[in-house]
Task: structure prediction
Amino acid sequence: MKAPVVVINFKAYQEAEGDRAFRLAKACQKVSSESGVPMAVCPPHLWLGAIARILEMPVYAQSVDPLPPGPGTGFVTPSMLHSTDVAGTLVNHSEHRIPKDDIGKIVEMCSALKLHTCICAETAEEASDLAGFHPNAVAVEPPALIGGNVSVTSADPGIVSGTVDAVKAVDPKVLVYCGAGVKTGDDVKASMDLGANGVLLASGVVKAKDPEQVLRDLISKI
Result:
């Protein structure tokens, strides 16, 4: 599996409920297949396994709990993800923060099952600290810019380049994504010019009237 350049988090938006989640996932796969740009999608848990079964691109969970199989009502375990065609999971998104010890447990459990992990961090310092768990990727997303119209690459380009330097100093193999306000091809190009391996975004695609057109614009300058 090639590492995704664009990771689309569906979150809990109404635009990603029911059949709309499947249509959105298929649009992402279509653009990825036609362009050759690797992408991954993160649907809501309710449709996660079903979408993973029909796509030929990486599908990630939006979160997972650090629990083994057994009693744990209402939780999603790494083993559950492994039993489907899901390729990995986001960890510690700013809207789903978890204790640092749990982050380490999740990375360890997922790694043992060959599930990819992308840890989210709010600052370069936190990204550097969490890179010590040796996930597959770290995504830096300043919370104040998430869901807004100003990209982190414009508002604070130093946090992107600083995160890249900090993470690579800990583990050169860890990929670095940036997010928060990323909506255009210029934003994606800027992030990669700053050293990032790709982007993590949500509303710019999920809430768009024409997600396929937005996706094509996003990768137009790679």
